[in-house]
Amino acid sequence: MAGQKGQRSGGHNAKTTAQHIEDGTYQAIRHSSRADAEVAIGNPQKPAGLDEIESSLWDDLTDFLPDGCLGGADTVALREMCQWYGVYRKSMQSFSDDPLDKDARMATCATWDRFWRIAQDFGATPVARARLQIGGDSGASEGNEPVDRYASIMQHRDAS
């Protein structure tokens, strides 16, 4: 992060090499060894065995994430995220049946945390989306605002 050591000053997201060249700020000594994020190649293949809720989340994410964000290599992580979401929904049902059950409460929190850690890698919050470095277009296009694209994640969480 930019700023003074020991202070949480924030800083800006790193520019890609192409952005430096376009802005006229490219310096070979500083930017030539830079590893820019590549646009993802291929499409993740929806695995068999996802239940209805998990499958719905898979479809929503693959439809709403920006072009170049998901690639074939993301199949495993996306599958794990959807499966953890399914486990969370099941544990949430147990918790709803008996809100005083400490084990059900802890299981629900643990499964949500596991799901949410993976979801951050796919830009599930505004902060996580700001950290995504996707080559090319950011994915926001006319009629496809970021708020609309990611609202389905929260709708899944709040669905009963």
Quick recap of the structure?
The chain is mainly alpha-helical and 160 residues long.
List the helices and strands and how they pair.
Blueprint: H1 17-23, H2 28-31, H3 52-64, H4 75-97, H5 102-121, H6 126-131, H7 146-158
Helix pairs in contact: 3-4, 3-7, 4-5
Rg, nearest Å: 19 Å
Helix fraction, binned, reads 40-55%
How much β-strand is present in the residues? under 5%
Q: How many distinct folded domains?
A: 2
Structural class: mainly alpha
Mean pLDDT: 76
Distance between the termini: 40 Å
Largest sheet: none
Molecular structure report:
The protein has 160 residues and is mainly α. The chain folds into two domains: 1-36, no CATH class; 37-158, no CATH class. Helices cover 54% and strands 0% of the residues. The chain has seven helices and no strands. Helix 4 runs antiparallel to helix 5 (102-121). The termini are far apart.
Key attributes of the depicted protein:
160 residues; mainly alpha; single chain; 7 helices; 54% helix; 2 domains
